[in-house]
User: Which sequence fits this backbone?
């Protein structure tokens, strides 16, 4: 009897497990061959839904659920499927590939004037402020109740509203905005690949001119990356796609969105600070720090607390602060990590009136989420404050808030959080104020700047391809800061490299009249994928093409930069072939100037290029020789960099491209 009961219990458990396995479903993205549409169907959507309805034959199995049909960003659909349903679907004629859904995340953490845009002259009026251009934003959505710039798609985080106001208000005031919500999870910055592709698919169908995506997925092969796949289709239709590089800096080779048909944007600082003046005691010492406390407030002679002798209290670590010690006081935190924002909550809970953080230069950022006043100071000033605290029996502090300083130097700098390249361009992404109410940092804030400038360039030059727009931005970008010195890395305070800031910081006015461009056709990217040894199926997924040839496979496409991948030998020599197109009115001539360190030699042949008319083209070869013995070890790579500049003869235009050597990972 006992054995019989155990046997029945075993059968019951087995049945439950079996039923559970049958009903366990996951979302999948299904790529289909567009040309395999049966003649009995007039639309691919009808074919896909018919396929799904034919997959379930077992009464105890949940039917598949159709999620999206993709007609533009890719050929296929997404659906909730069990393993058995997926296996059946993969046997259907016309099936190309199936991938489980993945998740990406948003890249978040006075600028038109900083970029040189002027309402009276130059690119803004010439492009009619982007009038007639439509920019598609892929984000959390848009909060329409705040000029304060909600219905779904509403933005519960402020991230989408923030980035969209950059592109369509800050950069191109007359442009139209199309918002596509792809981040639906209410408590995270995560976005599903199925939703991201649906947003891109709809944007392409709607005919947007520009796409801005301030999110990214883990770097994998391009066929597994939804942004890379969707952006290829957008590029083929003439849509410029700007993407954020990610916020995993300052570690090297951390960039997201690395497909060459994208324009990938890192982050830099702007020449503006939100400041507060700190006065210790009765005027013994005055220090200026960073703060965005939004009140014109003077805190006068408030007790200043420092947890001397207890390192946890000194750095305001965790819940080490005792409310009896800090209530109503300003707390000084001798802290050196950029994660200091996590402590603001504990300080507030302890009842402090505010805090002063002493933090490293690479981490000197403004606390963005706060409920009481906070000021951040550099370590040198932090040491001066600490010295005062150690010498005073009853230390006090006065703080004056709401001070905005313009023209700070040096600027721009490479933001500490910005993922390192190689990417194409760097742009403002550090403490950027938008929509009158929210200040954020991140490469999420950088991408819409570039998208907005792309709107202006597309409006001024409707015939320019996405590659032409990117080329114009890259070859006219500046690499010196407002002290006329090389742009520095915010973390190290040393000169940055093209792996930190790409081709440089964007100069919209110069980009509108670049003289020459490096243009790229969609077929060139297919040849590049062939050169990368992508399989025919992978190329079909990325490009949407069933018929293509790899006879012209290459790793060297007509890109406005030059990258030498180093090997284990002492010398490396690579020859690149490029074609330049004259986009200025009338004939023009240019001469090559190469600037390289001693360990790098670069030679352009021919060294002069002549163009008889607008849209005339000229070819050149650039041979780069690298000596590893003379290469400089750097934090992010071992190699070196220089530049080739095509300078207009009897003119002022300069077309500059970086030359970089680095080890492959």
Assistant:
């Amino acid at each position: 009897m006992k054995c019989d009961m155990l046997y029945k219990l075993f059968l019951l458990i087995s049945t439950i497990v079996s039923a559970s396995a049958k009903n366990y479903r996951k979302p999948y993205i299904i790529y289909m061959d567009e040309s395999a549409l049966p003649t009995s169907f007039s639309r691919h959507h009808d074919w896909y839904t018919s396929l799904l309805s034919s997959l379930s034959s077992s009464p105890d199995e949940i039917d598949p659920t159709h999620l999206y049909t993709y007609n533009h960003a890719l050929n296929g659909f997404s659906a909730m499927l069990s393993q058995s349903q997926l296996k059946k679907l993969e046997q259907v004629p016309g099936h190309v590939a199936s991938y489980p859904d993945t998740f990406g995340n948003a890249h978040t953490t006075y600028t038109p004037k900083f970029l040189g845009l002027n309402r009276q002259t130059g690119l803004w009026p010439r492009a009619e402020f982007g009038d007639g251009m439509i920019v598609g934003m892929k984000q959390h959505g848009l909060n329409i109740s705040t000029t304060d710039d909600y219905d779904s798609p509403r933005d519960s985080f402020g991230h989408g509203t923030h980035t969209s106001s950059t592109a369509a208000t800050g950069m191109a005031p007359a442009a139209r905005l199309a918002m596509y919500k792809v981040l639906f999870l209410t408590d995270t910055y995560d976005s599903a690949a199925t939703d991201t592709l649906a947003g891109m698919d709809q944007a392409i169908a709607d005919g947007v001119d520009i796409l801005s995506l301030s999110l990214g997925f883990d770097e994998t092969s391009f066929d597994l990356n939804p942004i890379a796949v969707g952006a290829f289709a957008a590029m083929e239709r003439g849509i410029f796609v700007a993407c954020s590089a990610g916020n995993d800096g300052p570690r090297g080779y951390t960039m997201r969105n690395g497909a060459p048909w994208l324009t990938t944007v890192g982050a830099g600082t702007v020449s503006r600070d939100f400041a507060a003046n700190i006065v210790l005691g009765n005027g013994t010492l005055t220090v200026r720090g960073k703060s965005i406390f939004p009140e014109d407030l003077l805190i006068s002679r408030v007790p200043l607390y420092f947890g001397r002798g207890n390192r946890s209290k000194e750095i305001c670590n965790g819940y080490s602060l005792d409310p009896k010690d800090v209530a109503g006081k300003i707390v000084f935190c001798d802290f050196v990590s950029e994660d200091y924002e996590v402590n603001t909550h504990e300080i507030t809970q302890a009842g402090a009136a505010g805090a002063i953080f002493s933090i490293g230069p690479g981490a000197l950022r403004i606390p963005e989420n706060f409920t009481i006043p906070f000021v951040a100071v550099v370590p040198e000033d932090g040491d001066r404050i600490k010295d005062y605290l150690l010498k005073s029996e009853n230390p006090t502090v006065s703080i004056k808030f709401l001070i905005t300083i313009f023209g700070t130097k040096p600027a721009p700098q490479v933001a500490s959080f910005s993922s390192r390249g190689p990417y194409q361009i760097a742009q403002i992404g550090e403490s950027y104020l938008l929509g009158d109410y929210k200040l954020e940092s991140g490469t999420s804030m950088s991408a819409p700047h570039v998208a907005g400038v792309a709107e202006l360039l597309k409006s001024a030059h409707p015939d320019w391809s996405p590659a032409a727009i990117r080329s114009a931005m890259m070859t006219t970008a500046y690499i010196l800061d407002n002290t006329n010195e090389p742009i520095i890395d915010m973390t190290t305070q040393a000169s940055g490299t093209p792996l930190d800031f790409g081709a440089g910081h964007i100069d919209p006015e110069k980009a509108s009249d670049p003289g020459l461009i490096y243009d790229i056709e969609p077929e060139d990217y297919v040849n590049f994928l062939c050169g990368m040894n992508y399989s025919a199926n992978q190329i079909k997924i990325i490009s949407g093409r069933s018929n293509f040839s790899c006879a012209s496979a290459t790793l060297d496409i007509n890109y406005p930069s030059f990258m030498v991948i180093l090997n284990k030998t002492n010398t490396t020599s690579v020859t690149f072939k490029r074609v330049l197109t004259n986009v200025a009115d009338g004939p023009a001539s240019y001469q090559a100037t190469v600037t390289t360190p001693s360990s790098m030699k670069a030679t352009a042949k021919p060294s002069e290029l002549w163009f008889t008319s607008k849209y005339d083209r000229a070819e050149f070869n650039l041979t780069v020789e690298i000596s590893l013995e003379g290469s400089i070890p750097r934090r992010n790579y071992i190699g070196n960099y220089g530049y080739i500049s095509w300078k207009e003869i009897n003119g002022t235009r300069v077309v500059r491209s970086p030359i970089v050597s680095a080890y492959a990972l």
The longest strand covers residues 571-582. Residues 515-520+558-665 form a domain with the Immunoglobulin-like fold (CATH 2.60.40.2310).
